[in-house]
Design a protein that fits this description.
With 208 residues, the protein is mainly alpha-helical. Helix 4 runs parallel beside helix 7. It starts with 21 loop residues before the first helix and ends with a helix. About 2% of the residues have low confidence.
Length: 208
């Protein structure tokens, strides 16, 4: 009887990078790592190994881990700004549009947890060369401020400092988003229900 040879263990091959947009590939790999293991586990060396590219190639695009994290935050803030403005605009730029912004904010956080934690987790600092991320974060916040000002002009919102009102609203909706990300609101519909309830209470608080 022929005896079968023992099978050699199969080694997991890295996701080889062949051509195309290396910065984009690095960004996607970073997001995947953060989502699975957290920001602490992210290293340029690890990204390079998984993509199968040299460290020299990596450093042509990102000087260090902080620069890569800044790129993640930049992408996140750009997408969040678009999501907020579209919710406001398609919702009619009134009460319904304002409420839709809150829902869009929480849904963005749930759909992009790695981006969101980098954006608001204190791991990206201006000293790390993340000026673009900071500017886009300001732009995303400004969408909320502009929506408040427009509603104030229409007599729908009280005449307090619009930036202070925006900070108040953001802190409430951000809290809902973090509860959802931390698994405290397991069903997706529960997060939607809570942000809708928060919208109603916020609306009462900022009414003229």
């Amino acid at each position: 009887m022929l005896r079968s040879r023992p099978r050699k263990p199969v080694r997991k091959q890295p996701r080889r990078y062949h051509h195309g947009d290396l910065p984009r590939a690095m960004l996607q790999e970073a997001v995947q790592t953060i989502q699975t293991h957290g920001t602490e586990a992210l290293t340029l060396r690890g990204v390079g190994e998984r993509l199968g590219v040299s460290r020299t190639a990596l450093y042509r695009h990102f000087a260090d881990k902080q620069a890569l994290l800044a790129a993640v935050a930049t992408e996140g803030f750009r997408s969040l700004r678009v999501a907020l403005f579209e919710a406001w605009d398609t919702g009619g730029r009134g009460r319904e549009g304002f409420d839709a912004m809150g829902i869009a904010y929480v849904r963005f956080a749930v759909a992009h947890p790695a981006h969101y934690r980098v954006m608001f987790g204190g791991v990206v600092r201006p000293a790390d060369g993340s000026q673009e991320a900071g500017d886009l974060g300001t732009d995303a916040f400004q969408v909320l401020v502009d929506a408040i000002v427009e509603q104030q002009q229409r007599g729908l919102v009280r005449g307090d400092d619009p930036r202070q009102l925006a900070l108040y609203i953001w802190s409430v909706v951000h809290g809902v988003a973090m509860l959802a990300l931390d698994g405290m609101l397991p069903p997706p519909t529960q997060a939607d229900a809570l942000v809708k309830f928060a919208n109603e209470r916020l609306r009462t608080g900022i009414a003229p």
